[in-house]
Amino acid sequence: MPEKPAQPLDPRLQALGLRSPVALAPMAGITDLPTRTLVTSFGAGLVVSEMVASREMVEAKPSVRDRAELGADVAGTAVQIAGRDAVWMAEAAKLLAGQGARIIDINMGCPAKKVTGGLSGSALLRDHDHALRLIEAVVRAVDVPVTLKTRLGWDDDSRDTAALAVRAEAAGVRMLTIHGRTRCQFYRGRADWTAIAPIVRAVSIPVLANGDVTDAHAARAALAASGAAGVMVGRGAQGRPWRLAEIAHALGHAPPPRIPTGDHLVSLVARHHATIVDFYGPELGGRVARKHLGWYMDNASTPPALRRRVITAQARDVAALLPEAFACRESRAA
Question: Which of 22, 79, 110, 228 is catalytic?
Answer without folding.
Answer: 110
